[in-house]
Amino acid sequence: MGGPNLEVFKFGMYILFPISIMYYFGTNLDGKFNTPDFWPKEGQTHRIPFEKEEIQSELSRLKARRLAVREQRIEAEKEMEPDADRIDRAEE
Description:
mainly alpha
């Protein structure tokens, strides 16, 4: 079909193609695939509490926030709720 030269060329491609891909992606990784400021700085992330007092203060803060959101939701539901008098009059 193609002869020995074609077979040598195909063998060379089979060997060199993966090596060249590994060389391209394996060298100068910081220059090719670097995204500046990808990871947040120390002050921009959440701080996980480890001490008992810190954990208790965080839990109380979360509980107060949850209760405030609950109160807002209940007030919004009361505003959306139709008056019972209007419903009774409409039925008559």
